[in-house]
Design brief:
Length: 244
């Protein structure tokens, strides 16, 4: 079974509960794609999830804008020296301010408690993560990306999209891609931002599906989607997993 989830934002407890429910395990029949933003905003800032990811052989993280911000500020976790201090400029401070304003404090605090070796392992892991992937499941082609396809054109190759177009895009309900060729699955924009009717539920249009069900928010929880049968798994208000 191939599963996707997105925008966990530190909610390791919810991720574990969802994976336990579907009996996800390390075998060739299971594969999980996480469409970015496992870090920031909640609990240990997702550092515990990153450490778990380092050990997984059948889980692929697609880079999100929050992981991009961490990488842009990796200098914060490097050894302090006169040279590193001299290299701190306005651009670096601006990137740090942007990251911190997007819920990075809990992540920075958790990373500060890890060894330099673990921090380096995490940085190297994130640097190797793709920003987009394409999978085919039961004859259907899916484009997996964090935020959608910015400045989309049917003549544009996947390799021609910039990082910003894949990590910071916010499709509207009338955004159309190419449903005859593929379905785009993304997160980044909580579904409730489109309308209250989508709160805690994924959105499906003819050409794209949004699976960011608001884990970053107070009381929000991530969802899990199985691409083999299109079953949706949610954690309800009582903390139990329900299937749709």
């Amino acid at each position: 079974m191939i599963y996707v989830t997105s925008d966990i934002h530190g909610r390791a407890d919810c991720l574990k509960k969802l994976l336990d429910h579907v009996r996800f395990s390390e075998d060739e029949d299971n594969w999980l794609y996480i469409l970015g933003d496992v870090i920031d905003r909640n609990n240990k800032g997702g550092v515990d999830i990153l450490k778990w990811l380092l050990l997984q052989t059948n889980v692929q993280l697609i880079l999100g804008n929050h992981e991009q911000m961490l990488l842009a500020n990796k200098w914060v976790f490097q050894e302090i020296s006169e040279e590193s201090i001299d290299n701190i400029d306005g651009k670096k401070l601006g990137m740090l301010s942007l990251w911190e304003s997007n819920g990075a404090r809990c992540t920075m605090q958790a990373l500060s408690k890890e060894s330099p070796e673990t921090r380096q392992d995490i940085v190297e892991y994130l640097e190797d993560c793709p920003i987009i992937d394409v999978v085919s499941v039961r004859g259907r082609r899916y484009v997996l990306v964090h935020s959608g396809l910015g400045n989309y054109s049917p003549d544009k190759k996947i390799s021609d999209y910039s990082m910003d177009e894949l990590l910071w895009e916010r499709p509207t309900l009338d955004t159309e891609y190419n449903p005859q060729k593929f379905t785009v699955i993304f997160g980044h924009t909580p579904t409730v931002a489109y309308s209250e009717q989508y709160k805690d539920r994924m959105i499906k249009t003819d050409s794209w599906w949004n699976i960011d069900t608001g884990a970053a928010m107070d009381g929000g929880r991530p969802m899990l989607l199985c691409l083999d049968n299109c079953k949706e798994y949610y954690i309800d208000g009582s903390g139990e997993v329900i299937e749709i």
